[in-house]
């Protein structure tokens, strides 16, 4: 600021250092820096908001920035060492702060509009202009009792600087958002500070005042000082309110973010991790490489029936209780997830195999305890499969797959237990897979073969026929037992085709036997449920010309269980063809006796387990006696299976069994050997 | 306070047995059992449950009666308690009246005291009949406290 008559090379600097109280200048500078810092933070938030939110954030930023700019100005003015008494025009002073707030608020809003260059230029210029407008209106409010003069060129320079630096600052703020760079944000603060400071001091350089001769240069009134301080404090408070609202907003946003992350990573029902989060953690653990751990998969037993019979509401309740129990048993902080349905998994870290065994036993026990919900007793259980990281797989997929295989093995071992993964388990599953493929081709490859185990009359010892037993001569694995492949064939839906083939083979073979001999063929429960069975049977009888009376179909009690209406219909139709029906493995089921009355049965075969224990075991002996007597009274023939010793043979025939079968008489043999047996017997009899 | 009529409307009874877990092969200490009973008395009084806990050698037999929700919550806590195992639910029924209204959790255990020969014999009998004849066993349990 130029005091008339005094020459200075750098008028702006001498204005700052000579004509101002430096303490106040520093205070103003501090306000300016802090205010700019807060302004830029809020400004960034404004630029990230849209719609109404952007208006509100512009307002808040404007209030903060306006208050800061204005306070800077006001404090600096207090530090101005005027050579004359000073008063402020209250109305204009207030008006100047309104300009600062409204103008910069508008500028912040405009700086966020869609067209980028325009937003920067227009927004920045509006901000710069409002800083300038605030300053000069503020100066009009500044009443100095002296001769005031203005320098036009400094005024123009100050406005140009304010606009220029405000535009730069706008560009930097926008850049800081796009590049997430701290550096741009810092530079934006700096240029905002520069815009405010240069405006103020260049503007003050344009201003000069000199005392009017004859008037004493008195000090400012104390009341004026107090008012000025109060205003400065109020402005400071406004600025910090802006800061705190920003902090609150940040915290809320962080909390919302955490909540969203929680929802995205947790299972809503149980509060455990969900599959997504668990996969993520497992993948992280695997990629870390070092430090082995175990993956334990838990599957509930008997959960589906609960859901089906008691409804999903109770099913969910039970899952919640189960989740809480698992959490209770496992060490705090264990990474535990519900993968979906009734499947859970956890990562056992820093636990030895023994410790895991301990935990799994405890889980098995506690999860098997009844869950009581809404007056219902829900009996569940759990099976577990465990795979060890890096040994049983290095990738999450491998680990999960092998833990699953172990789980499958645990279920196969009778459920409610746990199994560590072993290589042979996957071999077993591999075997199943390859068998599956081969079985589909077994018939066309002619790998199936029927063997026959002859039966004899208990009284005379003469052959009465034979039971047909299927064998599979696998091209690589050799002969496979029906116990292995029949369940698989049932599962794969191949049993009907295989069964039909066996029936046709047996009828063809038996056609060459002596006319009084019968052939017995096993029917799987799946076949009985097949509606095409009777038609297939009729067709085979027709094609082979085999007399139906010489064919016996053996069924097990399990075939009748649960679906007896359809079974009864099918069996009655079969009976109508003239074919006989015999009940296999008799005595092992639950309600054997009731079947005898309800189903058209011609023969019962006493289960080999009873025969094996005769004559020494009194219980088995009396069962055989009872069955034989029952058969006699109902007019049903009785066959004793599994005869291996002479005493068994003698006992069974003495007790009234009609027919005997077992190794003592003959093992199952290929058809040509059977024919030889029959031929030999005939020649001996002759 | 619950009125007797609301209690009667949802009164349930649960009966189970379990084995005291032997920690390091040693049977559960009398002091530990006393602790369980103390906690039970406190908690049960708070939620309006009553009942009895018998101890026959290393077997617990417990009857708890009260409102359904309280029973379910308490039984779930008992279920996950590490101090016993082999828990078997014997019976859960709704009931008209309480069998042990004056006991938040009564406790009777067998021991070697010759003066308690009769009690020990009763406990043994309850132990043997609880599953086949729970009603008679409950009556006998009631008479233990008479
Ligand atoms: C055999 C046995 C019977 C128990 N009976 C009860 C009972 O009737 N009521 C109860 O609140 N807790 C009972 N508990 C204790 C609970 O298992 C659990 O430890 C307790 O309720 C926790 O209470 P706190 O959180 O107040 O310590 C029993 C524990 C055992 C081993």
From TrEMBL, chain A:
Gene3D superfamilies: 3.30.70.270, EAL domain
Domain named MHYT: residues: 20-210
Domain EAL residues, every copy: 432-682
GO CC terms of this entry: membrane
Annotated GGDEF domain residues: 291-423
PROSITE patterns attached to this UniProt entry: EAL, GGDEF, MHYT
InterPro entries referenced in this protein's UniProt entry, alphabetically: Biofilm_reg_signaling, EAL_dom, EAL_sf, GGDEF_dom, MHYT_dom, Nucleotide_cyclase, Rev_trsase/Diguanyl_cyclase
Any Pfam family matching the protein: GGDEF
NCBIfam families for the chain: GGDEF (TIGR00254)
The protein's name: EAL domain-containing protein
Organism: Jiella endophytica
Lineage: Bacteria, Pseudomonadati, Pseudomonadota, Alphaproteobacteria, Hyphomicrobiales
From TrEMBL, chain B:
Matching SMART domains: BLUF
Entry-linked SUPFAM superfamilies: Acylphosphatase/BLUF domain-like
BLUF domain span: 11-106
Pfam families assigned to the protein according to its UniProt record, in alphabetical order: BLUF
GO molecular function: blue light photoreceptor activity; FAD binding
Protein name in UniProt: BLUF domain-containing protein
Source species of the chain: Jiella endophytica
